[in-house]
Amino acid sequence: MVFEELFKGGPVFACGDSVFAPGTDAVVLADFADVKFSKNICDIGCGCGVLAVVSAIKNPGAAVTALDIQPEACRITMENIKENRLEGRINVICGDIREYKSLFVSGSFDHIISNPPYFPAGSGKSSAAFEIARQEVKCSLYDIISAVSYMLKYGGYFSLVHRADRAAEVIWALSEAGLEPKIIRLVQHKPDSIPSLILIKCKKGGKKGVSFLPNLILANSDGTRSREILSIYEKRWEA
User: Fold this and answer.
1) What is residue 131's three-state secondary structure?
2) Distance from C-alpha of 41 to C-alpha of 38, rounded to nearest angstrom
3) Would you say 210 and 184 are in contact if contact means Cβ atoms under 8 Å apart?
């Protein structure tokens, strides 16, 4: 496999041909999710393990679990863990999140992160890797939220990224499950673009009330990367 740096001098990753490669959404979620005070972290739908690896680097004292339904994704995640010298720091589980009660004890984690499938099942033709990573063929938004509500301890946090055009549905579903949105940030491509992504940090059992961070703009008007996204890619991630 070919390993590539996430940024110069940073962690390295390989994804192979059958696992969906992480995009900017995974990177901005890794930056948005503040895991430095968490003790038990879970990455649901880990893919090639970017969020799990970055979480372990940002919080050396945390126990990190990476979960994916695809055996090949779990195998590649373990290769990436080894390549980044994080053996013994991240536990990889190959399993179906819809069977969360057989996989985990209730309240096992104090921070869960996820870059879930964005699109309904059957949203166009695509590769099998893309379908599982980006279409709700193996789990829906509601499957993930139900699992998180069970897996997360009271007062724990859930950080996720999703499509901005599903924001109302996502926020409603989270609140109904007792996962109260506390911090929200919209992501847009250019200064004059409409937001395409939404970052949400929820607290289990949290009180009503949410704070909005300034929108994250990925590119300048001329298409070059914005100063903020460059700083996210270039930071050293350590706590």
Assistant:
1) helix
2) 7
3) yes
110, amino acid identity: D
What's the predicted TM-score (pTM) here? 0.88
Which residues touch 145 (CB under 8 Å, ≥6 apart)?
173, 174, 177, 179
In a 3-state reduction of DSSP, which class is residue 214? Answer: coil
Q: Tokens in use for 152?
A: 């997360």
User: Cα(72)–Cα(191) distance, rounded to whole angstroms?
Assistant: 38
Does domain 19-234 fall under CATH 3.40.50.12780? My reply is: no
SS3 content of the chain, % helix, strand, coil (to 5): 30, 30, 40
Strands 63-68 and 90-94: parallel
* pLDDT of 227 above 50: yes
For residues 232 and 31, the answer to whether their CB atoms sit within 8 Å is yes
Q: What residue segments make up the domains of the chain, in order of their start?
A: 19-234
Q: How far apart are CA 204 and CA 175, in angstroms?
A: 9
Write down the pLDDT at residue 203: 98
Residue entry with tokens 């779990």: 74
pLDDT for 137-187, tens place per residue?
567 899 999 999 999 999 999 999 999 999 999 999 999 999 999 999 999
SS3 117: coil
Residue pLDDT, tens place only, 32-60: 998 988 999 999 999 999 999 999 998 99
